[in-house]
Write a structure and sequence with these properties.
Layout lengths: L1 H26 L13 H8 L3 E9 L19 H11 L7 E10 L5 E4 L1 H4 L4 E5 L5 E10 L4 E5 L22 E6 L7 E12 L9 E4 L11 E3 L5 E8 L7 E5 H12 L7 E2 L2 E5 L2 H7 L7 E6 L4 H5 L6 E5 L2 E2 L5 H7 L6 E8 L2 E8 L1 E2 L18 E5 L2 H7 L7 E6 L4 H5 L6 E5 L2 E2 L3 H9 L6 E8 L2 E8 L2
Antiparallel strand pairs: 1-2, 1-4, 2-3, 3-6, 4-5, 5-6, 7-8, 7-10, 8-9, 9-12, 10-11, 11-12, 13-20, 14-15, 15-16, 16-17, 16-18, 18-19, 21-22, 22-23, 23-24, 23-25, 25-26
């Protein structure tokens, strides 16, 4: 009898607990938020698949005529058969050899604006967009930004389009559900799902790396397609993968895209903010030496002469802790914050100097243009080094002040230069004591050296300057 009563009491208690749990679930209490539940991916796919497009491109290569394989010593007239084929091919018209590529995009307006990656349409002579209803349209590029790897295309639709809403990527959290739609390997309208694995990833693709990492399956062909949150909003543009990894994909946060979208739509060159400092990571040892409780901020190595930072009173050794009210957790955040600030705007920076925090107001300038097409490059020489003229944007991406100079773009494997410690992105300032400020000057200095000669280079890096020496082979 006692056992029966105890069982009855336990059942009543269990009922109360279950009812309380049900009430908590219904009201969102007990730390459980209904928004955290798995989204209805089937519904999201139905609603957003019409917003995703297939992008194919064609690029015409330089016209080529079939070449004959012949001995180097062959002279016209010595072989009647080869001379016949030479005359035969000489009379044929030259044909271009087209190359094609495939990617994805997402419709962002009812009048036919499409967002995609820059690398999907780079150097394309012809761009074709295919909608989910299988209609094809020729597209033109309204604007592109190779640094952020985004582009906006425009088509003239015959029917109604289904643009996807752009969300707020700052609100997405690690662990939140996301869905990707795209055309991996040409398989149109493929839907995959996963979670946000990490935020603010720096993968070395450019000066403004700030990727969302996801384990939603992303493959070649997904580039330019949307990464979608549980509300059906685009919070990223799928861009990169790690070829040797699984479940590791990267998307550009849509808030970064929105910061340049108006300029892209108008076909303007993207302008970015500039203050003119080179910065480096604050390690734990450096933090201790500066009296910081934790390793954070961006340590100023140099300040460019006449730059906005110099005019604001920023000095070498300052640690930038905040920029325009936003904390600078590490050096990689500062270029993004500065670049996204409107040119001409005056903002406040919080600096650590001599153990004290100080406030400095800086008027953001305009990042100098790359001057593409004017910079000189060199091929890999007997030294094993290839270089190009240093541009302002390249200097900014390296975190060093811009000066007229040359930057190493390639170092041959197992070369004397590699053994001496020369690295890609080193800035060469001197060759055997002679200052070089251009590829032409560098090549002239190297041309004076013979095989077996010793060469001494003065190099500049984020961490400082150093000399290296090796023998020309």
């Amino acid at each position: 009898m006692k056992l029966a009563k105890q069982a009855s009491r336990l059942a009543a208690v269990a009922s109360v607990v279950l009812c309380s749990a049900a009430t908590a679930l219904a009201t969102g209490n007990a730390g459980i938020n209904p928004e955290n539940y798995t989204p209805n991916f089937a519904r999201l796919a139905e609603e957003l698949t019409p917003s995703v497009v297939n992008i194919s491109t064609r690029t015409k290569l330089k016209p080529q005529r079939p070449q004959l394989d012949r001995p180097q010593q062959h002279r016209p007239g010595t072989d009647p058969f080869e001379d016949f084929f030479e005359r035969f091919y000489h009379g044929m018209p030259e044909h271009s050899q087209p190359q094609s590529s495939l990617g994805s995009g997402v419709i962002i307006s009812k009048d036919g604006e499409i967002l995609t990656n820059y690398h999907v349409i780079a150097d394309a002579d012809e761009i074709t967009v295919r909608l989910s209803d299988r209609h094809h349209y020729k597209a033109k590029v309204l604007g592109s930004d190779d640094k952020l790897d985004v582009a906006v295309l425009k088509i003239t639709p015959k029917g109604q389009l289904h643009p996807a809403p752009l969300g707020d990527s700052d609100q997405i959290r690690v662990g939140d559900w996301v869905m990707a739609i795209g055309n991996p390997f040409g398989l149109e309208r493929t839907v995959t799902a996963g979670i946000i694995s990490a935020k603010a990833r720096v993968i070395g693709s450019g000066p403004y790396d700030d990727f969302l990492q996801t384990d939603a399956s992303i493959n070649p062909g997904n580039s330019g397609g949307p990464l979608i949150n549980g509300k059906g909003e685009v919070i990223g543009i799928n861009t990169a993968i790690i070829a040797s990894g699984q479940g590791i994909g990267f998307a550009i946060p849509v808030n970064l895209v929105k910061s340049v979208l108006p300029q892209l739509k108008e076909g303007k060159q993207v302008t970015r903010g500039y203050i003119g400092v080179s910065v480096q990571t604050v390690t734990e040892d450096l933090a201790n030496s500066f009296g910081l409780e934790e390793a954070k901020g961006a340590l100023v190595g140099e300040v460019s002469a006449g730059a906005p930072a110099e005019k604001a009173g920023v000095k070498t050794g300052d640690i930038i802790l905040e920029f325009n009210g936003k904390p600078v957790r590490d050096m990689n955040e500062l270029p993004r914050l500065v670049a996204g600030t409107p040119v001409g705007k005056t903002v406040h920076m919080m600096l650590l100097r001599d153990g004290k925090t100080i406030d400095k107001a800086v008027t953001v300038g305009r990042l100098p243009e790359d001057r593409k097409g004017t910079q000189q490059t060199s091929e890999v020489t007997s030294t094993g080094i290839a270089v190009q003229d240093l541009t302002p944007a390249y200097a900014e991406s390296l975190g060093i002040p811009y000066v007229a100079g040359i930057v190493v773009t390639s170092v041959a494997t197992e070369s004397a230069a590699e053994s001496a410690g020369v690295r890609v992105n080193d800035v060469i300032q001197q060759v055997n004591g002679v200052t070089v400020t251009s590829v032409k000057g560098y090549e002239a200095a190297m041309a004076r050296l013979e095989k077996g000669s010793a060469v001494r280079l003065l190099l500049k890096r984020q961490t400082g300057v150093l000399f290296v020496a090796f023998t020309i082979s």
